Amino acid sequence: MENIECLRRLAEIENIGWFEADFTTGEFECSEYLYELLNLDRAHISFNFVHEMYRDLVKSELMTDNSKGLREQAFPVYTKHGIQWFNSRWDRYTDAEGHIKCFGSMRLIETARDDYAIYHYLGLFQEHETEVAVQMVLRDIAKRFQADRVYIFEYDFAKNVQNNTYEECAEGVNPEIDNLKDIEIDWLPWWKEQLMNNRSILLNDLDLLKDIAYMEYLGLKEQGIKSIMVLPMQNQGKTWGYMGVDIVKTYRIWNNEDFRWFSSLVALVNLCITLRRAKDASEDNLQLFHSIFYNIPLGLETYDKNGILTSINDKDKEMYGLKDEGQIVGTLNFFHNQNIPAKHRRRVKNGEEFEFLADYDFEVARRMYDTTRVGVMKLYGRISRLYNGKGEDIGFIFISMDNTQLTDSIARIHDFEKIFEHMGDYAKVGYGRINLLTGQSMGSTQWFVNMGEDENTSMSQVVGVYPKMHPDDRKRVYEVFRKAEHGKVTTYKDEVRVAISDETDTWKWIRVNMLLDHNDRGEMVITGVNYDITELKEIEHNLIIQKEKAETADRLKSAFLANMSHEIRTPLNAIVGFSSLMAETESVDERVDYQNIIEKNNTLLLQLISDILDLSKIEAGTLEFGADKVDLAALCNDVYTTTKRLPKSGVSFYVQPNLPACNVIGDRNRISQVITNFVSNASKFTFEGSICLGYEKLPDRMVRIYVTDTGIGIAPDKREAIFDRFVKLNTFTQGTGLGLSICQSIVQQLGGEIGVDSEGIGKGSRFWFTLPIKGK
């Protein structure tokens, strides 16, 4: 047989043909096989035989010289037998006449059947591949949940033991598979009962197991486990083992999405191992795989190496709004699906396994197939490779889930939580909820702040313990919990003290409102709100103090007004009476005595009127001050001269010797008024001993002026009130009780401070005030 004939026969046997296109002239030539199969026109280049979904892509690839060397592509075409898939390879070149040409081949590809992927998927789980396949799944689970240990236990009911048969550990976590062999099933009764009754085990905190199943708690605690999730693995309604996830390094709060995904992966692994154990019953295995494949609550699609869809399950059809999978199986190419981001399609072509999120637009999908759905779906996707029994890559499986409702719900919840969190932070309001039996809880950051705890602390370590709460308040809360256990209390409101720091003598006030109830399983659930009322308590305390001060001032003012007529009448009576007597008496000595009495009462009346006027000016804010240079030594001597007759007989009054030179800036008369008032008060209450007037320089360019006496002294509890208005420590002495209050106002407006020192009754006193020094 000649070579040309051999090549023709070979092309027919292998379903392959050649083609050549001249893009300069538009002419097209191909082999007889392709002319006949594709009903082509020999004259001109046309792409009408290519399926319309791929037509533009094929045309672009052929006519654009964007790379060198051979190129390859798979696409569906219209043939006399219907739509069939071809794999094409070609090369572009320029001939001697300068024409741009393309020469290549097209080879028919067998179309895939639904069960094609199933048989190959089963091939992955043949006995010699099972160990590797299961280990890959465990590794994937560990990555998905960031777990420290993922494992599978199988029951040996003949020996009544359980064995750890598969294990995947994170870096830094010690394997336990060799230590967990031949463990008696009955040794862990609670564990056995849960799994044999097809119930899962989810624990956010291992300590919650202590009171429920102590033996199980000890066994898991020895392995360093903090959080755990375990699901039973069943075949024909009977539990034959279980798969679990251990969190060792930290705690994890399991949620519904975690449980749903883990359940799906457990179902796949369950299928894998079940098929291995029942490899002799191939028909049953195929039926089981069909059942799981088509009923698993996730969308499943299988593709061959070229990206052609080979099968989908029922959930997938529902997700994508397909009425008939026949319109896409065998035609839809994953690598041309514009709803899958280009970077992810490239990763799949490179043989990678990964998961991703994408927006799946059904308007874009409608260009590829008929769908009943509209809008955009929030798609979660997972790519896993498919291998045959020889370990050869035959394609991939696409696992998908519609996350639209969940994503929207989570977004709304997050928005609400964010708003509520901001409101809580602003108002210092925290909220929380805890199941006292299981320890499942949730709480806002402000709840922990209000309770004096770190937000990373488990709520179960706070509720029922309350380490930062005042012991007296803690007792009340404990008593409420005891009553709630017996259904006697369902609500509780209280104000409690919480330590601001480790110093237990510093507290903040927290208002707590709690609902204490039992759920359907009889477990006590506490829902509560707390908010910081420390500032309100301080305001309340200050208001009480101000109220008491106002009431005291009102009483003193009333007493002052009641006594004012007496205070004014006393010196006036003396002045009037002794003025009359002085006119009638002929004795010079008596006249001098009368004159002294009149002068003394004139001074007293003048001081009384001055105090009242000064008080009025202070109230009105019109008390005026000069800004003179005042020599304190000269001023003290002047005050001594004018007041040296005030002390009683037997009391010495003197100015401190050797006073240093000192000048201040202020109103000389007001400074003199304060010193004179100090001397006058000392004279009233000093009956023996001495009165000393002086001053001393202080750091920070201040000077302290003082009047020290050996008089009756001041009780410690009276020192703070002595500068208040209308206060008189001795009601039998003359005066309005305004002098020291006025002195305080004068000193404060001069930029100084005023005070009194006294060791107590009978030990004298020292009145003083400070002023800033002028110059160097």
Helix-strand layout with pairing:
Layout: H1 3-13, E1 16-22, E2 27-30, H2 32-38, H3 52-63, E3 71-79, E4 82-94, E5 100-109, H4 114-124, H5 130-145, E6 149-156, E7 161-169, E8 183-184, H6 189-196, E9 201-203, H7 214-222, E10 227-235, E11 238-247, H8 256-277, H9 282-295, E12 299-304, E13 309-312, H10 314-320, H11 342-349, E14 354-361, H12 362-365, E15 376-387, E16 393-402, H13 404-427, E17 429-435, E18 441-443, H14 445-450, H15 471-485, E19 491-499, E20 507-518, E21 524-532, H16 534-584, H17 588-620, E22 628-631, H18 632-643, E23 651-655, E24 663-666, H19 668-685, E25 689-698, E26 702-709, H20 739-749, E27 754-757, E28 765-772
Parallel strand pairs: 23-25
Antiparallel strand pairs: 1-2, 1-5, 3-4, 4-5, 6-7, 6-11, 7-8, 9-10, 10-11, 12-13, 12-16, 14-15, 15-16, 17-18, 17-21, 19-20, 20-21, 22-24, 25-26, 26-28, 27-28
Helix pairs in contact: 5-8, 8-9, 16-17, 18-19, 19-20
Features:
20 helices, five-stranded antiparallel sheet, alpha+beta, six-stranded antiparallel sheet, 776 residues, 39% helix, single chain
Q: In percent, how much strand structure appears in the residues?
A: 25-35%
Q: Whole-number radius of gyration?
A: 50 Å
* Major pleated sheet: 6 strands, antiparallel
DSSP, total strands: 28
> Shape from CA axes?
elongated
Low-confidence parts: 111-128
User: Which whole number gives the mean pLDDT?
Assistant: 80
With helices defined by DSSP (H or I, 4 residues minimum), what is the helix count? 20
Strand order of the largest sheet: 8-7-6-11-10-9
In helices, the fraction of residues equals 25-40%
Distance between the termini: 127 Å
Structural class: alpha+beta
